[in-house]
Amino acid sequence: MTNDRCVLAFVILISSFVIPARAAPPGFESIFPAGGQIGIRVECTVAGKGLEGSSLLAWSNRPGVVLLAGEKPKKFIATLAKDAKPGPCLVRFYTNDGSSPPRVFEIGNLPEHLEKEPNDAFTEAKSAEPRMNAVINGVLEKSGDVDTHAIRVQKGKAIMLELHGYALGSPMDPALRLLDSRGVEIRGAHDSHNLDPRLSYTPGTDGPLFVQILAFAHPPAADVALKGSASHVYRLLITDEAPKPATNEPKVLTLPAAIQGLLAKPREEDVFILTVKKGDELALAVHSRAFDALLRIDDSDGKMITQSDDGESSDPSLRWKAPKDGEFKIVVGDRFHGGSPEHAYEISAKPFTPTLTAMLDTHAYRVEAGKDAEVKITVKLNGTFAAKLQAKALDLPPGLTAEPVEVPAKGGEIKMKLKAAPEAAASQAPFRVEISDGTQTFAATYLIPFTEPRGDLLVTTDTQPWLTVAAKAAEKKPAAK
Fold first, then answer.
1. Which helix (H) or strand (E) holds 15?
2. What is the pLDDT of residue 194?
3. For position 221, what pLDDT does the model report?
4. What pLDDT, on the 0 to 100 scale, is given for residue 12?
């Protein structure tokens, strides 16, 4: 046989073993509208790669939220049950090849509306029906796009405007402008707790006002031009039911406690009285989406003992041990001395017990029948556990197993093996990883995938990573010589 014939035979032999490349899981860039009202059906349009096929399915982590494929490509019908819990949830799209990253979908109680084009110019919006106590869903579809919406206001009745764009995962740094009936700006807002704007305003007359929405690039770009795309999806919440301010009188905290409050005026601070015994150890935290909260502990004479303006996230938290018996003051304020109807918060206080955070390395895993997949978990401990900690995988499909993994006493990275039996059937479903010391159990989470985070999304973590089990690939027999 000549050298050329030997090479040709070798190529034919090797090529007979080549397995076709595995298709990529679907991409998922946006869903519009990115939410709906409880008890209704919403037709949604999705954007991204691999979302056209008939095998595409959807999943939500919220009971009562079901998405089914519509009659046209990239159309889905979201059915929101009457008993669905309001708030943000996550949705995924998946095929036999795997799952897309999850994205945020909001469920609310207020009537929902879609923007009506054209609405770029102030003059075009003047003919639109004014809205109040509603949610307007829109898209800044192209560079330079500006959306304008009419709202109905009453003299002396404060209004609140809250935009969710960045918080949905949209690639945008949005801003709001509030215009009077002549088109003159009377109030503006840009970044708040994250990149999304919120503003409040008390009108001096009845009649329509106009809200303009625009967006800059995220991640930041060298220019400051207005940006837009099919993924620049937003939700504008319009209400005239501002939260009621708390009284300035100190309030008594009884453990465990979770209390909502409001810093209604600039430089205002809310004070809570807590009676403790020497050696009591407490876990305190404040959550606020609209301002940079400050958490402080003072003694009964008002002398500061300790404070925090930054915790595990951008919200403050404290682990504190009482130095003596008596009363102490727990103080909530704004780091920059602000205050407004937007400065709502929640404070929690409870006896300290050892806790941990367990972070998964990704949102989705894939394993082929007869093979293994590795799950990496980074564990951080807060306090000392008396018993050994062990990580376990739960809700695995038939044919998959995972041996429990012991967590080192000081935490750190651990690795868990997902083992698929040769006869394991193909499947798609979420699973869970939990860490327990026998008395307390902690769910492992993953970070919602997003580029260059500069603040919180409406949902930042989730406890249900996705698992794709692929059937064992059939081996090709060598071709006959």
1. helix 3-15
2. 82
3. 78
4. 39
Mean pLDDT of all residues belonging to the chain: 90
Q: For domain 30-108, give the fold.
A: Immunoglobulin-like (2.60.40)
Domain boundaries, the chain: 30-108, 112-239, 251-351, 355-470
* CATH 2.40.50.140, domain 355-470, yes or no: no
Residues of the chain with pLDDT under 50: 1, 6-19
Q: Select from 3.40.720.10, 2.60.120.380, 3.20.20.330, 2.170.150.70 the CATH code of 251-351.
A: 2.60.120.380
Residue 225: φ, ψ to 5°: -70, 155
Same fold, 112-239 and 355-470: no
Residue in this structure with the two tokens 């499909």, named with its chain if needed: 397
Tell me what pLDDT residue 480 has. 58
Residue 374, strand partner residues: 417
- Predicted confidence at residue 19, as pLDDT, reads 46
Q: What is the pLDDT of residue 15?
A: 41
User: HEC states along the chain?
Assistant: CCHHHHHHHHHHHHHCCCCCCCCCCCCCCEEECCEEECCCEEEEEEECCCCCCCCCEEEECCCCEEEEECCCCCEEEEEECCCCCCEEEEEEEEECCEECCCEEEEEECCCEEECCCCCCCHHHHCCCCCECCEEEEEECCCCCCCEEEEEEECCCCCEEEEEECHHHCCCEEEEEEEECCCCCEEEEECCCCCCCCEEEECCCCCEEEEEEEEEEECCCCCCCCCCCCCCCEEEEEEECCCCCCCCCCCEECCCCEEEEEECCCCCCCEEEEEEECCCCEEEEEEECCCCCEEEEEEECCCCEEEEECCCCCCCCEEEEECCCCEEEEEEEEECCCCCCCCCEEEEEEEECCCEEEEEECCCEEEEECCCEEEEEEEEEEECCCCCCEEEEEECCCCCEECCCEEECCCCEEEEEEEEECCCCCCEEEECEEEEECCCCEEECEEECCCCCCCCCCCCCEECCCEEEEECCCCCCCCCCC
pLDDT in tens, 133-153: 999 999 999 999 999 999 999
CB atoms within 10 A of CB 421: 13
pLDDT reported for residue 220: 82
Cα separation, 33 vs 150, whole angstroms:
19
The pLDDT of residue 6: 47
CATH T-level topology, domain 112-239: Jelly Rolls (2.60.120)
